[in-house]
Every structure is written in structure tokens, then in C-alpha cells.
Amino acid sequence: MYSEWASLSAQISANSCGAQCFSVLNKFPASAGREVVVSVVKQLGTNLGITQNAEPSHLVKDEEVKWCMDVICFGLSLPLQEHETIKDCVNVYCEWLTALHPQPRISVPKPICEDANLYARQIINHFHNLFVPRQGEILPFLYQTTLGADTIKRQAVLCHRVLRTLQQTAQISQLMDRQTWDTLLLFLLAINEILLAPPTVKDDVGDQLCERVLSVLFEVWLLACVRSFPSPSMWKTLQESCAMWRHRVALVDQWNRVNLALTARLLEFSYGPAFPQLKNADEDGQLIPIGMSNDCVAQTWYRFLRMIGNPTALCSPHIISKSSHFVQWALTHEKGAETHQHPCLQQLPQIFLNAMKGISSQVDAFLALPLTSMGAGVELAVARPKCNSILHVFHEWLFEAAHIGGDTWRQNRKKQACEASKRPSSMIMEHRKGSISLSQPNSLNDPQSLPPTLTIDKYESGRAEAIGTLCKIFCAKKTGEEILPVYLARFYMALQQCLKITESRECDETLASILLHSSDLFRLDLDGINVLLPGFIAALEIVLPDKDLKLKTQSMVFNRTELRRSAINILLSIMVLPLHYQTLPIRDLTSETSEKMFTFIQLKSRLMNILMNALQVETDAQNTHMLLGGLLLCVQDAVTFEETELGGGGGGNPASISHNSSGLQHHEANLLSSACSERSASLVSAGTASLGGQTTATMGAGSGSIRDTASAHDYPSLTISDDMSFEFGQELEGVTTYDNAHALFVRATYLVCHRLISSWKTDLNVSLAALELLSGLARLHIRETARKFTNDTLVKIYEASQNLTIISSDALECKRAVKWICDYICYQCSRPPPAHSKDLHSTIVAAFQCTAAWLMQHPYLLQDKDCLQTVLEVVELGISGTKSQSKGTDIPKFKDEKELKPASMRVRDAAENLLTIILEQVGYFPSECGPESISSLLDELALMKHCNSMVPAAAASSEQAIAKFKYFVTENSTILALLEEPLGNDQDPQPTVTLLIRGPFGRHAWTMQLRHLPRSKSGIKYHAVNPGRPIPMNDVTQRPECEQKNFPDGVDKVQPCVADYSIPTIEQMREQYGTASIRELESMLENQSIHEKLAWAEADTSADSLSHAQECVPPAVCHEFHAARLFLSHFGFLGFETRNPHNPAEALGNPPQRPLIVLDTKSTAFAADLDRLDKLSARTHDTVYVFYVKSGQTSAQQIIGNMAEEQSANHDPHFASMLQTLGWPVQVSEHSGWTGFAHNSWSLKGTPEEQQQQLKSTANELLNYNGSQRVLYWADVCSEIAFVVPTTWNLRYNSDTSDGGSISSTDQMIGPSNVWARGETAGEGAAGLAKSKSRNLSLELDTSRRDAKEPVPPTRRKGNVTKPTLLAQAPAKIFLVWLESYEDYLNFPLEDVLAYTRTGEELHTLQLPRAADCHVIFVHSLLSGLLRVKLQGPPGRMSFATPLVDGMVLSRRVVGNLVRQTALNISRRRRLDNDNYQPPHVRRRLKVQDIVQKYKMDLSEAELLGHLFQRAI
Known about the structure:
The strands form 6 sheets. The chain has an 8-stranded mixed sheet. A 6-stranded antiparallel sheet has the order 13-12-11-10-14-23. It has a 3-stranded antiparallel sheet with strand order 3-7-4, covered by helices on one side. The protein starts with 8 loop residues before the first helix and ends in a 5-residue tail after the last helix. Helix 19 packs parallel to helix 23 (485-498) and helix 29 packs antiparallel against helix 32 (741-758). The chain has 52 helices and 23 strands. The chain is of the alpha+beta class.
């Protein structure tokens, strides 16, 4: 840089030797000179104003001033014992230097004021005498033998005074010319040379003043850059001088300090105010003088950066110790020593580390990284420079430092040693240069001659810092950015050498630094990065599987949790690579042969072992959360891979060889053993080597696949490619089964269940993540691959209803998983009351939901007696708080004998939900209505359209249809709507009743008929058409007349008793009611007798009399039945409860609970309330909004415009593929589930004509899922989710609904009378509550045993009726954002796109959705075809759910499934964290109770029975 410029080193040496600082008094004896100095300086010092008032100087001529200065010059060179005299000399000169100030002191002589620069230069030169060693004191390190420590400290004080004065003068002087600046800078260089060039001796003057003289030098130099920019010769001299001071720790510290200050200013004007500001210490921020121009800052920054040369020279003590001072020390050493053996050089490893830290800090500044960051999970600035730009500046130093101690470095040292050995054995000492020289004899380059503290391994900390800095630079690559191949090659070589694992398998600082700063390395589309995959996997095998990390040195300082977290991040970014690249080979950088060549698929088993073992020993909650997400990714990817990629591979290959291999592990074996996978790797490696690396293995569905009709599991065989040897194919088959989808499923289930019940049960987040993973595993349909079925591995479950046997090899694993989850619930419920908290109950609720998922996906488990009993016991525990049988030998305790004390209302609600799923949904979902509804799609209006008596034109309104029904409420939670008319499709008249049952878990339609014969026999007639009857006899018989007797003949002889007199006689009646009443009755009897006689006579003469022959015909069929009465009576709803007056518990308190409550349907608002109840879904519902962001887009309008029809052709094709995997495309007009909008969800389907009208314009809009006509939908038995892709239509729709202020689904807000708040304390609703409370919101107990003790019901505490709390927390807003450029996630306009994401429910929340509460899942497509995930959400304990983890890399096969699961789990966690959330079935139950309160009819028992006989309108 300065090779063409002359150095000023000779001038500095002359100054250091005192050539310019000799006084005439040196010609005289020392005593004479001392007396002169004492006399003169004492007199001059009295006029300075230190001890008395200052007086003007008496020196008025130049000769006088020069003579005094000659005396002071000699005084400054006096021995240090003359401290007071030297002090006076310093004071005089410091006062005289104020001549350069704007206001000089009064004591400054007039000649000095008139020519301040001239005299200032002389004064500065005279100051050399204060710092140079005295005669007889050759080097400062000899001071210790002749002077006391106190004397050295007093000299240091004077030196500080001079330095402070010179620095202050440079700062405030406006008179200094260029010559004076050069003199000052040369003086500072000279005194630094004097004090710092010699080897360091503790507590000498150089050691005490080292930091101070360097800081003054650098700060004054920065001032000179503004006032009088130093010449190239001056810069060259500074660089050469600093090379001689590199054994001083303070040099590098001050260098780092100045560099960071300059870098901060450089960033300000280079990247603008938007670039994150580099925050330095306050004093460091003032280093840069005010007024330094941008160009000056840039020039100064680069020159200072190159000031100390290549920092890697610090790793060579031979180079650092080349100066004459070290040679003199070696020559004068008592025992003789080499220059590089000086004790002060033991600081070189620390100095090297500090230098690398300084460079790393500057790199962090350019990347806008906090100086304290560990490099993981820190957001980089969007406007950061490119990697090439940073590497152009620092690559030489960083790459060389990264190779220190490596194989390449050792080879280069050997070459240098060979070259040096060929030269003459002489030491060539360069006087000033500190650059690397190979002219030293071989003995000095011999590592054996170095002391133990300077061996190359001691520099590992600096090497680790360098490689870590390189990792940070390369991890800062932007999307689409190109990095020079030479940089990539050198970086990969450095990483490969640093990742080499020693035989001791210990973690050193270099390895830790790489892992800490390489979290993003495999997520950035770096060309050829996969060549490092084996090295990184080997590093992960050291860090992750072991609980106690083996450290190379215990002095390593880093956070082990952060190290494991970074390693897990790397693991999550490479998990999908084996199945993505499969048999693609990975070449070794250093080996030219293919002996060490791996294929990607060979690494799968090692990755699985790392993941499993890491999960087994991990103790940190966040790390465990990440590992659980990665585990589900692996299993899901393997399952999907076998179903899609391999499912049809063997069918199309007629030459494929199908085999079955028994690789199933016994369920009692240790499923975590890695021996199988190691054997797998060795076998595949051996096979690959024997085949020249050209082997391929595919797995597909062979002709011998077993298809299980009950479980829908497929079992494909293993297919071996033709170019693979048959023997090797057999071996590969045997080991592949250990790592296939089923083996992973078994290992994952076993490990997670075991750790959940043993270690994770006390941690909320980990428990939730584990339960989410188990729920995800339950939904997997695994194809059993290459497995022979034996009786030992099969579980046979006989299902009598379908007359078939379900054979499932994983049934035992599923049963064990359900058993473990139930045990987890039991343990959590049995914890002592102080442990019961909101978090604990959240885990219990999540466990119930997980159990439901397993039972829904594996319904055959309920055919197992033990499993069914276990599940129902846990349900009972959740509802009542205790089990009927704590042990199998206990006598069961019946429901009405137990005290109802659930752990909390939330737990009981979850248990009720599970019980309903078991009874109603397991094995039956989805129903004929499809997954979009778990309720019947029939309502009153739909039923009446099919009723015979209903005129089609009259069925125009739901009010008219409702009038045909009778409505009852039972158990205060279920509405029964009864229709007594048969439907039109019924040709067999029977007592028929059609029911619409609206309960907490949905609406169900049933039609019941009362039949005396089975339906199969009802149509059979058992008599002939013409049976042939006998001829009637027309003979009229004589009717004998006889007297009718009411009593026997001897009745009068019987002695009457008291009972006989209970029946009054006619006389007594006459006396009681009067004669008139009796006469009236007699008259009525007489008239009735006359009418009967007339009727009898008329019948004898009619044609229908018996005297006329007539054929018998059967009576007409009855078409009118009181079917509702029959149904209610047969099902026990009309059994009215009676009280026992002798039982005080029944005699007092509330009136008896009636089994039926009649509703008044005449009110006009009844139909609207019923419709609101139907609009309350029995499942949770969520919405995910999908956006496509093109590169560089930052505004909401641009992003929304991407989904316009004309823009859809420019999308990444993988985006459309992902959309199709998120859910099922549905037409909103046909859809009866959640649509993403409250106004048209859960409504019945329209007519075909209406549907066709709405489908006309949607033929070619494949990606139009904005909710206007189409939407993506997915549902299971507990939840619904809609995926909406907003367009400009959404903004218009939202504006319309907001302005209208009314949305039909006002059911989401229950009235204040039914708003219930949660109570989360342990034993909520227990013995302290009053027994008079009614058991609302619970499963009713059997009340037939009234002599038993009445249980104490739990109740919900009513909240403030004026503050609706049902939806106090807004529903979670979840966004799925596809990024073309990954960096655009920093500028995503979250606040602006909220306007496009309204569902209509916002009107019923106390708090509108905020951008800070939104969860965003960013997906970025990599060039490899994989997808990178970025999660963003509100801070909180339960913000992020699995399976997606921030930074995870996915395959396209699983992205839709995992995104959907993550969105559902995020919503579930948000509901668990909401104190006021109520499950859907609770909201429906509250709505039913609200309807009861509004429309109930208070009827007596007689009025109720009379109401049953009344016909509906």
C-alpha cells in the first residue's frame, strides 16, 4: 500500500536516541547542570500561577526564551530521583504550550506567543527526554532493579500530564501548521516506540503507560486526519511501528476501538439512516472528530484497518520477536534463550483472539448484528452489503486464521521450513519491518522450540472466532446473491478442516463456533454446500446425542444450551435432504477417489439417530420443542415419501424383484438403539463402493401388497433396481426397514410417550408440543414396507358387527400410546392441589384432544376391552374428578354416589367432548354429509318440503315450518323438535315421529316408527284375497226377556260393614245435593233410555242389520296418530318425578326438575333464535389467509394484486401445488361448513339452479379462493379450517359488512345473562358451593335413587353481566405468506393486509385484531426445490406451536399438511391460553338455556299431557 513511499523510521530512531534533545548543559558536570536547572526552573515555576497568582513572564527576547528552554531540556533528562525538578520543567512547558490555544496563559513569554508553532515544535522535541531511558538505564525493564515502584509511578504521572496537554492542545488549537502536526505525530510515534517496542515487563513504565500513550497517539492521529491529513510516509511509518508493538495487548484493543468508531461513521453515510446504527460506548463515540468528511472517514477507516498488518502473524512468535529489543534480551539472558521464548509472548494467543474479535465486530457491524449476538436467530439488515463486498476486505485474514493449526497450515509450514533450510544459516534481521519473513534459520521455525504456552493449539480461540466470522458472512447471503466461487471453495475447505473430529470425540472451540454461527448455512442455496453434509453430521453426533458434552478444554466459555439450539437448527435444515436427493453421491473435497463417497440416502439413519438421541437427553424446553417439530417432520416426510414417490415405483417395472423382509422389532426391545442404523450405513456404504457408486434403491408397491379393508393401510414391498446385485439387495432390504416410515413411527411414539410421562409432564410448552406430535402421528397412514407377518407381531381384533378381523402390526403401539396418554391425564389430575394451575389444566385438556385424535384415526382400539375401559375411566375422571374403581378389586361406586369435583370446568368440558366423540363419531366420521358437517343438514324447512300435508307454496318461511313441530327441552341442554306427520316417501302408514335433536354437539335428524312386526315382515299378508265365507243365517232368534239384577239374591243377608257405608245411598245424595238435582238426573236417564230404544228399533229395520246378508270388510287404515306422545312415553320423558315428604332433602329446596320443558313457538323471534343456535358450530373454526409476495414488494396493494387472474401465470408453480395440499376446494354456495366468513357459514345448501348460477364465472379461476365463490377447506371431528386467498374483493366485502353493522351470525355473542367466566383454581366447584344450585351445563345424573346422597354440582361463576367475556380475546389471525425473496419478510405490511382478513366476527370482540397479535408462517422456495420456513408471532409462552419450527426446511410433499397442523395447533394453544374461552359445545348449551329462559311454558303435568294431544298447526 505504501511500498513506493519512504519511511520516517530513521527520524523516529534519532528522536528516541535524543539527538535533537541535547542541551548545552550536557557539556558540564551533571551536578553543575542540576544546580542551574533547579535555580532557573524554580524561578520560572513561581510565575505559573500554581502556588500563587500568575505573573507575566520576564522573558521578552528570543535569546532569553531559547536559553531557558535549553535549561529545561536538560532538566527533563535528570535522573528520576529529581522528581520535583522534573515536575517543574513539565509544568513550565505545559503552560507555554498554551500559546497555541485561542487564549494563551498570562505567564507565556511574548516571543513564544508570537511564533507559537516554532517554539511548540522545540518543546515537543524536548519532551523526548522525559520518556527516554536515562544513562545507565538501557531499557525500561531494567528499572525494576534500580528504581522503586513509587518512582516509576511518579514518572508515569508526569508522562500522563504531558500526554494530556498535547492532546488538549491538538483538540482546541487553531494555529498548528502542518509542520507542527508532523512533529507532534512523530513525537507520539517515538515515545510509543520507546515504551512499547521493548518486551513487556510487568508494572514498568511501558506497562503502566501503554494504553494511555496508544490512545493519545490514535486520537491525535484522527485529529490530524481532519486538520492536516498525514502523508503516505507518515502512514507507512505508523504501520511499521505498530508491527513492532504487536506483543502488547493494548495495541489490538485500541486498534479495535478506533476501527469500530470509524466503522460506525462509515455505515452512517454509506447505507443511510435506515441502516441499524452501530452502538459503541459513549467515550468511543467521541473518538471521531467533528467535521471529518465522509471521504476522510473512508480513507482513514481503510488505513487504520491495515495498520497492524495481517493478524495471523501473531500466531508466529518468531516474527513478533524479530526486533532488536528482543535480541538484546536474548543476548543478556542469564541462561541463554531464544527471542521467541520471552515470557511476554505468552500473551500472543490472547492478542490474536482480540484481533479476531475486533474483525468479527466489524463484520457484525456491516451485517447489522448486535455485538453480543451468538449468530443464531438474529435478524439481519435488508440493506446490508453483499457477502462478496465484505470478503473483499477481510477474506485474506479470516481464511488464513481459519486454517491456523489445520492440515493445510501444517503443510505450508513444512514447505517454508524446507525452503528456509536451503538458505545459509544466518539470521537476517530487518530493522523496522514486521512482515512475514522466511529468512530465519530452521531452528526458529521448529515448533518443538516453542514453549508449551505458545504451541499452535493455544491459538484455537482466535481460529474459532475467525471461522465463526466466516460462517456469519456466508449465512448473510441474500436471495439470488452470487458469491465468488473462489470464496466458496476456500470457505468449504476451511470448514472441512475445522470439522474434523479427533479420536477422543471432544468438542473444541472451533467446532462450537462453527455450530453457533452456521444455523442458516444449509438454508441459503449456497452452491455446493452439501459437500459439507458428512462433516456437519459428524459434528452433530458429538454435540447432540450426549447429555454431558465432552469439552476439549474446560476453559471454553459458551452457553451449552445455545450451542445445542444452533446444532438443532442445523439438524432441522438437513433432515429432509436424504429423501430429497436420495442416491445422489456426495463427493469428498480432499479425496480424488470415490472411496469416501457417500450418497444422501445413506445419511438418513445417522440423522434419525441424532434426532432420537438428542430428544432423549434434551433438557431445555425450547430445544425440545424444536426437536419434536423435527421428529414429526421426519416421520411425515417418510410416510408421504413412501406413499407418493415410491407408491407406484414397482408397479411399472416388470423386472423388479419383490421381497419381504422381517425387520420389525419386538415391542419390548430398546427402540432407541442405534446399532441397526449403524449397520445400515455400513452395509449401504459397502454396497455402494462395490458398485462404483452407481447403485440406486427404490421402494414401491408390488403385486403382493396386502390391503387392509378396515384400517386402509397399504403394505408395499421393497423393489430393487436391476443394476444392483441380488445379495446386496437382500442386505439392503433387511436394514432399510429400521429406518422406514413404520420404524420411525414406532420409535417416535415410544420415545415421546415415555418422556412425556417421565420428564416433560411439568413443562407446559413441552407437554403441548409432545401432545401435538402424538396427534400428528395418530393421523399418519403408514404403508408397511418389506415385512413378513408372523403371529408374534400381529394384533387381531375381532369386530362382530362387521364380521371381520382387523389385522394391524402397529395396533399394539397405538394401544400403548393411548394408554400412556391416559396415564398422563391420570397423573396430572392426581397432583396435589397447590400444583393445579391454569397451565396444568391446559395440558390435561390438550391430552384429551390428543386421545380423541388417536381414537378417531384408529377406531379399532375401542374394540379392545382393556383400551376401552382405560379411556372411559379417564373420561369419568375428567367429568367427576374421581374414578369409580381406583383399583380393579374395588367395588364400583355409582355415579350418583360420588361427589362431583372435576379438576376444573375446562377439564370436564374436554372430557365430555371426548365422551361424545366416542359415542357418536368414532368409526362414523365423516358421515354421509361429509367432513364439512358433523350435524344433520336437515332442518324444519327441509323436512316440511318432503311432508305430504305441506303445500309447496306454503313452505316459503321457516316460521311456517316451525309451526308444524312441537318443541321440548330435556336436561336443560337438548331441544327436541317433533313432527308427527309422516314424510312423503313413507308408503307404509305407521305411528311415525320425525325428530330434530339440537344439543351441545350439533343437530341430528331421526325418524322413528312404532311397528308391531319387523320391517322385513310388515308387507306379508297371511290371508287369502277371497277366503270364502259361509252363508249367513237369517233366522232371528227370540230374545228372552229377563229381569236384570244388579246384586246377587242373598246380598241383603250379608251383614254390612263400615266400608259399605262409604258409598252414600240415594236418599243421602238427595239430602246432600237437593231434590232438584236428583230429578234432573232422573230426567236425563229417562230421555237416554228412550233414545236407545228408538235407535235399536231403527237398526233392526235398516239394511245393515243382521237380518240382511253382507260381506265383512276390514276397517279403514288409521292415518292419524299421536306419535309424539308415544315417543315421549316410550323413552321415559313422561315419568314425572314425585317427592318423598319424609325425606328432608327432597321436601325442601327447588321444585323437582321436570324431564320436559315445553317451548312456546308462537313468538316471531323463536325462529331467529333457533337459526342462531344452528349457526353455532359444534366444532372450532379457524381461518388462514394466504398471500403471495413477489421479490421486492412491500405494499399491501401490490401483494393483493398478485392474486389477480392476469397475474397468476407469473407465480411460482410450487405455490399452486402447495395451495392444493392445504385443503379441499369447495364451492361456498354448496358448502355447509365454515367458509372463512361468518355470514354464510353453516348454512344449508342452495338449490341446483342457484348453484349453477353462481358457478358460471368460476370456470377458469383456478387460484381464486378469496371466499366469494370458492375457498379451501379442511375439517376433522373437532375443528374446521378455511384457507382464504384474499383479493380486492375481500376489501370491498369487509367495507360493506362493517358499514352495515349487522352480520347474521350474531350467535357468536351470547347475551349477558349467559356469559360465564372460567374458574381455574384446583377443585373448582367443590364442597364450598351451595347445594341449592342447579346443575346447569353438566351431564345429568340418574335421579331415580332419591335416597342416595345428592352430589354437589360444580357451577360456573357468573361474571360481570355488563362485560361480555365470551370473545374478549380476538380469534388468532394466521397468515401464510409465500416469499419469492426471503428478505421480504422483514418488510411484510402486516398492518395493512389486516383490512383484507375480516371474517365478520370482529364486531363481537372487545378487542379488534392487531398486527402484533398475528401469527405469520413465511414459506420461501429454495433453488433445490425445498422450502424454508420462517415463523413470526406475538411473544408469549404459548405463541409458537409445532410441527413447523422457525428455520425448518421442508420438502414440498409435506408442506400443506404441516402448515395446516401448525395453524390448527396455534389456534388451539391460543384458546388454551384464553381464560374466557368456552368450547363450542358449551356455547351451544348456553344458547339452548337462553332459548329456554325466553320461550319456556310453565305447564302443569295435566296441561303438559293435554298439550301432547293437541295437533300442530
